[in-house]
Amino acid sequence: MKIKVNFFDKELLKGYGSILSIVSVIFSFIFIFVKISDSYKLFAGIVFFIFLLVLYIFLWLRANLLTRTQLLINNSIVNIRVGDIFNEIDLKVIAFNEYFDTQVDNKIVSDNTLNGKYINNVVRDCDSLDNLIETNNHLIDMIVESNVSRRDGKKSRYKLGTILEVDTYLLTAFSKFDNENRAYLSMEEYVNFLLNFWNEVDIVYCGRSISIPLFGSGITRMKGYDTITDQELLELLIWSFKVSRIKFTYPSVVSILIHESKKDKINFYKLKRAL
């Protein structure tokens, strides 16, 4: 078990204090009717102390072992949990690059990314997908420029956050590409992507639940923020949802999925405090 919550964490102590006050009231009420003889008072005191210590250790262990939490933001339910986006039932978001490239050759699109796995394992006809991307009216409106000097891949560059709905998947333009087809983003571009992304989601979700990955977790070139953590990226994602003012009416919910390999990097207990 990786220690993500300190033993004397302030929020943990605060929560423990709330529970302790309830326990104290219960025992005070019990002792109104139950008398303990003097010969057993020391033993009862030791047992009670051990009980309180075990209770605190249980709460501390639970905080460290959490793999999910639920937040209420703008009257919308947001679930943050460990999961595989391809196993979800409702709308699933897949991050593409700003060109919506579909060439999985480990030069433009890596087969280890969600983008590559989606194309290799979900897309049955890549030519049809390419045609849909090129002819979709919304995407045409979101073209920023035509990069005719680009040697490999597609030429049309789209506004970050642009969404194309394909069956139960929402494909979104997320990462920028340099001349060597390496993904990168600045923090300003990342925030702008998030805000535009939620605006696009607000248009297409139509009362359906949506599952999204932790955007940016796999990007090593976050310009100006070389040491940004997955926890910080997640908190930014939650913040962007809050300021977007988008509302998911029950029973539709937002699920932010953390890959199994990343769960030890996320302090789920801290997320409610991050709000």
Structural features, described:
The protein is of the alpha/beta class and 275 residues long. It has two domains: 10-65; 68-274, 3-Layer(aba) Sandwich (Leucine Aminopeptidase, subunit E, domain 1). Helices cover 41% and strands 20% of the residues. The strands form two sheets. Strands 1, 2, 3, 6, 7, 8, 9, 10 and 11 form a nine-stranded mixed β-sheet that branches. The protein has a two-stranded antiparallel ribbon with strand order 4-5. It is elongated, with a radius of gyration of 24 Å.
What distinguishing features does this structure have?
single chain, 275 residues, alpha/beta, 9-stranded mixed sheet, two-stranded antiparallel sheet, 41% helix, elongated
Gyration radius, rounded: 24 Å
Q: Can you give the mean pLDDT? A: 88
Main CATH class of the largest domain: Alpha Beta
What portion of residues is helical?
Answer: 40-55%
CATH H level, superfamily name of the largest domain: Leucine Aminopeptidase, subunit E, domain 1
Shape: elongated
Task: Report the sheet-strand fraction.
Answer: 15-25%
- State the CATH architecture of the largest domain: 3-Layer(aba) Sandwich
Main sheet: strands, sense, barrel = 9 strands, mixed
* DSSP helical segment count: 8
**Based on DSSP secondary structure assignment, what is the total number of beta strands?**
11
